[in-house]
Design goal:
Blueprint lengths: L4 E4 L8 H10 L4 E4 L14 H14 L2 E6 L8 H18 L3 E4 L8 H18 L2 E4 L9 H11 L4 E5 L1 H8 L5 H8 L3 E6 L3 E3 L2 E3 L11 H10 L6 E3 L7 H21 L2
Parallel strand pairs: 1-2, 1-10, 2-3, 3-4, 4-5, 5-6, 6-7, 7-10
Antiparallel strand pairs: 8-9
Helix pairs in contact: 1-2, 3-4, 5-7, 7-8
Amino acid sequence: MELTIGCTTRPYGGLPYAEAYERIAAAGYTDVAVFANEGQVPVRPESTPEEVAAVRKAADDAGVAPSMLIGGTKLDLGLDAAVEDYKRLIDQAAALGTTWLLDCGTNHEAHYEDYFELMRRAAPHAEQAGVHLTMKPHGGISLTAEDLIAANEKVNHPAFAICFDPGNIIYYTLGERRPEADVAKVAPTVSTGIIKDCVVAEGKADVMVTPGDGWVDFHAVLSGLVSGGFDGPLYVECVGGKEPAEVDRDIAFALGYVKGILTGLN
């Protein structure tokens, strides 16, 4: 099965983004998901055109496509202001050359209905900009597969879909829910996927684990997604290594590991 496999910059969060892109490219990846480096995501609603252009140039120079950008809503501003802020983020994503704008939902129950309304208002703008919105499990409004399916139904727009993150299903439920049991039912709503493992020990969950070393059965998860019609990109988010050289090794391993599983599904 030929699917795009990218890598987020999260494992290199302490490095400048340009160096992160170079290391991701050196490990064999074609795509990068732009997460925070040195304390902030380099493309935000308030970024200048020059800042966005610099991020895009750094990716181009490294030879990777910045095909995903992590974002977030600011519902504490009030719904109307939050919608306008998110539309600016969509425009920034389009300027970056991004296909997928990743969102993590909200943990504030008072914001749940406003969140869905924001996405309903923002989705047509995203469609016009050529950007796809994709929400992943992150606790709160997106804790379980049922929450993800309900969110997709409530927004009900072709520019909005789900990002399946198996490690987060375990992390936010402390292992009470497993992604393998959920993947078949959520697969038809999934446009993107995160490759993230997780372990739980003594009541504490940890996602800083190289894929294959934790609780996630990636063969079951990936086969469930593919059999459900998934054809979108996958992005490695976390590995166990801490130092850059260790991360280099782990993300290269993760790429081969995922490719091997997908090849076996053919």
